[in-house]
Predict the 3D structure of the following.
Amino acid sequence: MASKALLALFLPLALVFLSCLAEAQLKLGFYEETCPHVEDIVREEMTEILKVAPSLAGPLLRMHFHDCFVRGCDGSVLLDSTKGNVAEKDAPPNKSLRGFGSIERVKAKVEKACPNTVSCADILALIARDAVWLSKGPSWPVWLGRRDGRESHAAETKQLPPPKASLPQLIAMFAVKGLDLKDLVVLSGGHTLGTSHCNSFSDRLYNFTGKDNLYDVDPALDKQYITKLRNRCSLTDNTTLVEMDPGSYKTFDTSYYNYVKKRRGLFHSDAALLANDFTKAYVERHASGLYAAEFFQDYSDSIIKMGNVEVLTGYDQGEIRKKCYIVN
Ligand SMILES: *[C@@H]1O[C@H](CO)[C@@H](O)[C@H](O)[C@H]1NC(C)=O
Ligand SMILES: *[C@@H]1O[C@H](CO)[C@@H](O)[C@H](O)[C@H]1NC(C)=O
Ligand SMILES: *[C@@H]1O[C@H](CO)[C@@H](O)[C@H](O)[C@H]1NC(C)=O
């Protein structure tokens, strides 16, 4: 008797709980009814954008990464600063960010077809997928239904792994986001696309330990490569761009791992991948170029996982921004 009464009491509660859980998750085909062509619209715009400016693929992929690492994938990276608040995009790491105009352009097209329906965070996840695919990389299904956050704070970009991070720092910063060692070495493979400003790595070329002589360089960086990079970058140069995967920085492939293996990764965080048996083995396997399909699958798995980090879902969280740079 008592157990039946208890069941009657708890079953509805359990159902409510389960349905909340289900609601708090992203879905494939989330916009099937409300904006059935959203993925086509994004891909069409991205095709146009990259046809004119193929070098934007790297920055647009990077933008999704920056978004997810700070406050979860909620579009906070896209918000402008306001009076009294400095937004993420105006924090020091923003120098690596480009392509905000392209995101607004895609968003405007989607708004025209389906007003007030598709979040900027979802559009950014689709843009990142298409940036990779249009650069001859893999494609992957994008789970949708993210809501846009209403806050963005420059100070929170501390959660982003900096280019100077050591391996233990990288591991810890990924772990906070639920990402493991494999995700770290796999997502680093995204450095196959794009460029970097000199000042993200120039400390490795000059005055590495403060001795201030010609030989004071990062021993983890290949000597000949140092000479080459020095010809491009002075210690204080913050404008020159250097390819992260020279020769194929507009193509998504495994050659980045070959550079890292040859101790020619640009950042400390690239070199750090050789400091751990697991990540080193991964770098060496993919440096061979023989397992591109495997890397593509790994990359798809890891970026789907990253796209789930701390998302806002359901009608009671966040909003659907009309424009990505400003809250409604
Ligand atoms: C961040 O970007 C803005 C323009 O979007 C620029 O005015 C500002 O100087 C940048 N800040 C840094 C530290 O690079
Ligand atoms: C080299 O590093 C030392 C110690 O950090 C610093 O005092 C010195 O000014 C640096 N030299 C240059 C040329 O930046
Ligand atoms: C680049 O460096 C110059 C000189 O060191 C500095 O005045 C300028 O603000 C820097 N620009 C950025 C975007 O950080």
In short: Residues 207, 210, 212, 235 surround 2-acetamido-2-deoxy-beta-D-glucopyranose (ligand 2) (CB under 6 Å). The radius of gyration is 22 Å. The chain is about 45% helix and 0% strand. The domain at 11-160 is CATH 1.10.520.10 (Peroxidase; domain 1).
